[in-house]
């Protein structure tokens, strides 16, 4: 009798233990699926394949399930950053494909328009879309129906932070750090080359002539990143004060009047001429002005003219090309 009860008790115990093992296994599987979920999808050839997914929190705070190893990425802004990371996107916005400095690097990248042509994006069958905070809610909603859509902020961080954020989405963190380290090393070499060309307190002002009547002065983004941050040249006092308050200061948004030229102009001037219309418009006005002709930088032949490509673009490969041009340009006085 006791043996029968003991066998019954042992059988019950075995069932309890087995049930606990099964529940534990289910719990572990559920936990893993939070970061490494799997989904079935069709690749462009029509074949079904399993894609490992992970959860990512983008710049808007949204938690999105994205591929661990995306194969077909479309971007509305970060073509340049992706190329720097060794990833060629399936498609990119029109304005990103225009740079001469990218010639030979973007063969095969489809044009998705600007503004974004949603139908074209759909044709490309992306498994991931990378956009910015400037994409309209209507377009973003349509893109989200095509593929996981991640927002990487363009306005908040500098070009290095943008690169790191894109790398975080693509799983290319190591490549981002390697690129930044290589760029900084090149910048240090550039500083050494220019060391004997500049006096200790010599200042550089960066202007942009645009259209018929727009004159801007730059801080430490876009054109200014290479000049003030990478090469560590001195801005004029007005810009120095702006940067002291906000290291991310880009440019004075108000149109600068030519009466401000004597106050804003440093010992050297870099003038970005946006296009041919600007050359015949605002730049012509400036050069015909007595205020301009009497500036020390103009009298001393220390004015450098640059083009929008690659200088105006704020992205990794653009600033890398701009750095090369800056060192060559500033090594000799302009005629």
From TrEMBL:
InterPro entries per the record? ABC_transptr_periplasmic_BD, Bact_iron-sidero_bind
Q: Name one Pfam family in it.
A: Peripla_BP_2
Q: Where in the cell is it found?
A: Cell envelope
Q: What is its main location?
A: other
Lineage of source species: Bacteria, Bacillati, Bacillota, Bacilli, Bacillales
Sorted UniProt keywords? Signal, Transport
Q: Which residues form the signal peptide?
A: 1-30
| Protein name, UniProt field | Iron complex transport system substrate-binding protein
TM spans, by residue?
none
For this chain, the family text in UniProt reads: Belongs to the bacterial solute-binding protein 8 family.
Where the record annotates domain Fe/B12 periplasmic-binding, the positions are: 70-334
């Amino acid at each position: 009798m006791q043996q029968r009860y003991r066998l019954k008790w042992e059988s019950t115990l075995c069932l309890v233990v087995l049930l606990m093992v099964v529940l534990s296994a289910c719990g572990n599987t559920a936990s893993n699926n939070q970061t490494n979920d799997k989904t079935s999808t069709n690749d462009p050839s029509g074949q079904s394949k399993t894609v490992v997914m992970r959860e990512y929190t983008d710049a808007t705070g949204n938690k999105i399930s994205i591929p661990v190893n995306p194969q077909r990425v479309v971007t509305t802004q970060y073509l340049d950053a992706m190329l720097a990371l060794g990833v060629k996107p399936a498609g990119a916005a029109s304005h990103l494909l225009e740079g001469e400095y990218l010639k030979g690097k973007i063969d095969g990248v489809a044009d998705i328009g600007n503004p974004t042509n949603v139908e074209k994006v759909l044709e490309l069958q992306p498994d991931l879309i990378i956009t910015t905070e400037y994409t309209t809610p209507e377009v973003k909603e349509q893109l989200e129906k095509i593929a996981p859509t991640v927002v990487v902020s363009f306005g908040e961080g500098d070009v290095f932070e943008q690169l790191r954020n894109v790398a975080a989405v693509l799983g290319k963190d190591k490549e981002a750090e390697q690129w930044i380290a290589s760029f900084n090393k090149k910048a240090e070499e550039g500083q050494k080359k220019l060391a004997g060309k500049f006096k200790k307190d010599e200042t550089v002002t960066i202007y942009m002539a645009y259209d018929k009547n727009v004159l801007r002065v730059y801080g430490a983004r876009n054109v200014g990143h290479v000049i003030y941050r990478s090469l560590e040249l001195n801005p004029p006092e007005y810009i120095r004060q702006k940067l002291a308050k906000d290291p991310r200061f880009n440019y004075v948004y108000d149109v600068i009047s030519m009466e401000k030229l004597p106050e804003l102009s440093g010992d050297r001037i870099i003038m970005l001429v946006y296009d041919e219309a600007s050359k015949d418009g605002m730049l012509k006005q400036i050069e015909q002005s007595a205020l301009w002709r009497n500036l020390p930088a103009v009298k001393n032949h220390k004015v450098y003219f640059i083009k929008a490509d690659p200088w105006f673009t704020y992205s990794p490969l653009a600033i890398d090309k701009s750095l090369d041009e800056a060192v060559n340009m500033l090594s000799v006085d302009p005629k």
